[in-house]
Design a protein that fits this description.
Length: 56
């Protein structure tokens, strides 16, 4: 997956996680939010890009 796809899936996971927290109090067995955060971090590191671009 490229970085944009990972960021998209991470955002979707965040939305679903917040909606699930309201509807179902039980935690899920697998945390997709953390999974995508780790994958994004690894890919950024491999690409040599900063987490946030420097402001001009």
């Amino acid at each position: 997956m490229d970085l944009n796809q990972l960021l998209f899936h991470h955002q979707v996971a965040l939305i679903r996680d917040s909606a699930q927290a309201i509807d179902v109090p039980a935690p899920s067995r697998f945390d997709l939010v953390v999974h995508y955060e780790r994958r994004i971090g690894r890919l950024r590191h491999e690409m040599g890009v900063a987490r946030y671009p420097a402001s001009a």
